[in-house]
Design a protein that fits this description.
Number of helices: 3
Oligomer: single chain
Number of strands: 4
Shape: globular
């Protein structure tokens, strides 16, 4: 199995998209600061993942999520759903506007190795 995942830095309000064959170990590496592109934005929370039968399928979907239309898809169908579930559980992780309301999804940024 191979995985595509999205992690979130609640401190910096940044998403990271990646793929791996060992999801638990990869998340540990991110939070240990051993992934160069995500190191400055610690700590990370896993907010979404999907399993694929082959590594090629996972890499293809990861690369799609890093395109313009893929980012739009991720925000609309993956990230916003994950954040809504967190808000329902009482977790306040989004940026705030001047009036104290939760900011729009556009306030977030996606990073990742080999961004297209």
């Amino acid at each position: 199995m191979s995985y595509v995942y999205i992690i979130f830095s609640s401190k910096f309000h940044i998403f990271y998209i990646g793929s791996t064959i060992d999801l638990k170990e990869r998340i540990k590496l991110h939070n240990a600061g051993r992934v160069e592109s995500s190191k400055p934005y610690l700590p990370w929370d896993l907010i979404w993942y999907c399993a694929f039968k082959t590594e090629a399928e996972a890499r293809n979907f990861e690369q799609y999520l890093k395109t313009g239309s893929g980012r739009s898809f991720a925000y609309r169908h993956l990230i916003s759903v994950a954040l809504a579930k967190d808000f329902q559980r009482g977790r306040q992780i989004s940026p705030r506007t001047k009036n104290g309301n939760v900011g729009p999804i556009e306030n977030y940024k996606i990073i990742g190795e080999n961004n297209i």
